[in-house]
């Protein structure tokens, strides 16, 4: 039950509802209350927190940062290789969330079996989207691809909304938490972080150690050059978009482990994923996780010490600053670095 | 092909090449829009073919036509693709309703202050992004970030309404009662002509820019900025001017939105989707053209509203917008307004071929 009190990555509900009805601070304070009632008072009164509370926030920030890193992975890969900003990334995540829901309800199996299914489904969906909408205009001005992927976003989200409505859904998992000397580690998010790290390693190994991965990196470096040495660039693009969508599927698939979800959750993750990707450097894998951690820390500590969703203001200020001063990102570079 | 038809096409082609073609077409479409409230009630043999178009639908259509027209000045003419015009729309809406409900200031003054603020915010965004030479994706993301930033500022500052926003006060609380001075009316028809007036102003401004030296400078920046700079166009200043003008006028329909729909919340004016609704008509109608935003809005918004109202499935209208967006970008990136010319060109080349065969 603790998992439902996590600093909710989606504050849209909080923003839309009456003030104070569902603010993230309330969630954190409630959680802190279960840890240490007096410390929770201290947090609410904005004084120095006890080391336990601080450690608790730290753990939350790392967990959340890992998830943001995973969310940004597919986005940064598609950008690095084909120079396309995929606005449909969040919508693909939403499709994966509902796939996991339907799969585990239909089969009665654990959601951990549903996640691989969602990844495969999203890979196929990604290739289809690429072939039908991106491939014909891959050489057109960048805005055209932005508009088209936004069109895909609208269709996917509307489809999910029509099929499932816009009420929050959840898996009803009771994963519980580990208690490490007073610091709670919610297991749902822990699994998500482990999956994120495995995905990062697997994708990195695939890119570094296989011929196909080399072809993708070659295309990312120099599209024309790749064409000249005999790489089938359109096929590499289709594969890349498929993998990017599959990674969105993985990210969307793990979110139901620790959070209830709505079709609107995709937008929230999408916007913060843009921030993560730019902070880390468009196209950079390690950058995605560094950016994810930065956003995770701003969000968790920001929602602990600031009112409502004010931490988002900090996130966007950081975003704008990096865009202006160092648009190639803190760890800027292409997908092979 | 029948002779009469080919002559008509020939005459239309000649008309399109005249200098007065665009102003005439713009005037005709504005006159048709002015007549729309009556045209939709017109019955032929007991059936009103436009009866399904409600006045409310027309008002919404013109709101987005006006935003798209204003967006077009910056993004269509100058080529700086903004994905954050919701910032300017929202500033117009908020300044108007906040000043009216808190200080009982006339909404017209609120609108003026709001559009000035929007222009200044546009200058700030432009000064930063142009100074640091953000382009393409980076520029689009930066504009989006500036819009999202405002959304969270307005959500989290209680003095600015917080998450629940503002309600429009009653007209008698700050004026003598409903009327033009109060920016409030009892029926929908005056609202329609008011937003048509806004659209006319923005369209005339857009047309004037299109035909002036300023317009040529902006087009030059869009086509090749370095070349424009090389022949002496001060590109930085002109890009800033385009952003400021565009932002200023985007705030007008925002102010109208606040006064027409009674209530404003951060999610209704700053949301991600608003950024798209603002530019959607321009994309569909034709980026960088004067008629495009009007024609595009007349196609997209009624279709979306019709789908939404007649099937009562939430979200279906957004899916329709998505399909239209993709179809236009894939198959006709120059937009709907390019269709007549393309048609004429096609038929001309046909007839030329026939003539050659005959000779």
Automatic annotation (TrEMBL), chain A:
Keywords: Amino-acid transport, Cell membrane, Membrane, Transmembrane, Transmembrane helix, Transport
Major subcellular location class: membrane
Molecular function per GO: transmembrane transporter activity
Coiled-coil features, chain-numbered ranges: none
Matching CDD domains: TM_PBP1_LivH_like (cd06582)
GO-annotated biological processes: amino acid transport
Subcellular location: Cell membrane
InterPro entries: ABC_transp_permease, BCAA_transport_permease
Family matches, as Pfam families: BPD_transp_2
Bilayer topology term: Multi-pass membrane protein
Transmembrane feature ranges: 54-75, 87-106, 112-134, 146-164, 184-207, 238-258, 270-298, 305-325
Single GO cellular component term: plasma membrane
Family the UniProt entry places it in: Belongs to the binding-protein-dependent transport system permease family. LivHM subfamily.
PANTHER family found in the cross-reference section: AMINO ACID ABC TRANSPORTER PERMEASE PROTEIN (PTHR11795:SF445), BRANCHED-CHAIN AMINO ACID TRANSPORT SYSTEM PERMEASE PROTEIN LIVH (PTHR11795)
Name under which the protein is recorded: Inner-membrane translocator
Organism: Halorubrum kocurii JCM 14978
UniProtKB/TrEMBL annotation, chain B:
Protein name as it appears in the record: Inner-membrane translocator
TM annotation in the entry: 20-39, 45-65, 86-105, 111-130, 137-154, 191-209, 240-258, 278-303, 315-333
Membrane topology: Multi-pass membrane protein
The keyword Transmembrane belongs to this UniProt entry's keyword annotation: yes
GO cellular component assignments: plasma membrane
Subcellular location: Cell membrane
UniProt entry tagged with the keyword Cytoplasm: no
Gene Ontology molecular function: any one: branched-chain amino acid transmembrane transporter activity
Lineage: Archaea, Methanobacteriati, Methanobacteriota, Stenosarchaea group, Halobacteria
Natural source organism: Halorubrum kocurii JCM 14978
């Amino acid at each position: 039950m603790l998992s439902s009190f996590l600093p909710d990555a989606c504050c849209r509900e909080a923003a839309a509802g009456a003030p104070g009805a569902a603010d993230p601070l309330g969630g954190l304070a409630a959680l802190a209350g279960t840890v240490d009632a007096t410390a929770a008072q201290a947090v609410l009164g904005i004084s120095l927190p006890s080391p336990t509370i601080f450690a608790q926030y730290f753990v939350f920030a790392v967990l959340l940062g890992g998830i943001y890193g995973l969310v940004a992975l597919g986005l940064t890969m598609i950008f690095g290789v084909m120079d396309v900003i995929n606005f449909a990334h969040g919508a693909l995540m939403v499709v994966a969330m509902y796939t996991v829901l339907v799969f585990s309800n239909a089969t009665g199996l654990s959601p951990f079996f549903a996640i691989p299914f969602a990844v495969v489904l999203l890979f196929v969906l990604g290739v289809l989207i690429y072939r039908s909408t991106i491939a014909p205009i891959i050489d057109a001005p960048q805005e055209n691809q932005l508009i088209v992927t936004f069109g895909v976003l609208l269709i996917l989200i509307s489809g999910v909304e029509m099929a499932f409505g816009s009420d929050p859904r959840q898996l009803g998992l009771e994963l519980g938490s580990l208690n490490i000397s007073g610091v709670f580690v919610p297991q749902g998010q822990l699994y998500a972080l482990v999956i994120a790290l495995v995905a990062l390693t697997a994708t990195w190994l695939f890119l570094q150690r296989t011929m196909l991965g080399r072809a993708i990196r070659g295309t990312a470096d120099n599209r024309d050059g790749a064409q000249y040495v005999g790489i089938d660039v359109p096929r590499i693009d289709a594969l890349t978009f498929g993998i990017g969508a599959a990674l969105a599927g993985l990210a969307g698939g793990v979110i139901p482990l620790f959070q209830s979800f709505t079709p609107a959750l995709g937008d929230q993750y999408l916007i913060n994923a843009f921030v993560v990707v730019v902070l880390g450097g468009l196209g950079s894998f390690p950058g995605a996780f560094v950016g994810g951690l930065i956003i995770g820390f701003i969000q968790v500590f920001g929602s602990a010490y600031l009112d409502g969703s004010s931490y988002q203001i900090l996130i966007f200020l950081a975003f704008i600053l990096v865009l202006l001063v160092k648009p190639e990102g803190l760890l800027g570079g292409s997908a092979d670095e | 092909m029948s002779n009469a038809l080919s002559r008509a096409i020939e005459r239309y082609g000649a008309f399109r090449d005249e200098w007065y073609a665009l102003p005439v077409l713009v005037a005709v479409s504005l006159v048709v829009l002015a007549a729309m409230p009556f045209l939709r009630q017109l019955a032929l043999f007991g059936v009103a073919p436009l009866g399904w178009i409600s006045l409310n639908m027309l008002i919404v259509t013109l709101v987005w036509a006006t935003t798209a027209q204003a967006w077009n000045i910056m993004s269509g003419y100058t080529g700086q693709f903004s994905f954050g015009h919701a910032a300017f729309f929202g500033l117009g809406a908020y300044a108007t309703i906040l000043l009216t409900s808190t200080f009982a200031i006339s909404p017209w003054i609120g609108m003026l202050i709001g559009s000035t603020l929007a222009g200044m915010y546009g200058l700030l965004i432009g000064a930063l992004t142009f100074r640091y030479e953000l382009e393409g994706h980076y520029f689009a993301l930066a504009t989006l970030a500036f819009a999202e930033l405002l959304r969270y500022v307005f959500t989290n500052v209680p003095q600015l309404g917080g998450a629940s926003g503002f309600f429009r006060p009653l007209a008698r609380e700050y004026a003598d009662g409903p009327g033009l001075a109060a920016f409030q009316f009892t029926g929908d028809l005056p609202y329609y002509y008011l937003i048509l007036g806004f659209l006319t102003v923005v369209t005339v401004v857009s047309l004037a820019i299109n035909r002036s030296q300023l317009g040529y400078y902006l087009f030059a920046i869009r086509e090749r900025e370095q070349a424009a700079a090389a022949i002496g166009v001060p590109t930085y200043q002109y890009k800033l001017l385009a952003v400021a003008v565009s932002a200023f006028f985007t705030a007008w329909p925002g102010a109208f939105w606040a006064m027409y729909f009674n209530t404003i919340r951060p999610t209704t004016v700053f949301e991600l989707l608003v950024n798209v609704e603002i530019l959607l008509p321009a994309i569909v109608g034709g980026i960088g053209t004067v008629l495009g935003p009007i024609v595009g809005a007349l196609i997209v918004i009624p279709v979306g509203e019709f789908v939404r109202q007649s099937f009562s499935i939430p979200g279906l209208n957004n899916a329709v917008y998505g399909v239209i967006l993709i179809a236009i970008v894939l198959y006709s990136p120059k937009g709907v307004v390019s269709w007549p010319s393309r048609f004429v060109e096609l038929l001309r080349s046909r007839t030329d071929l026939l003539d050659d065969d005959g000779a």
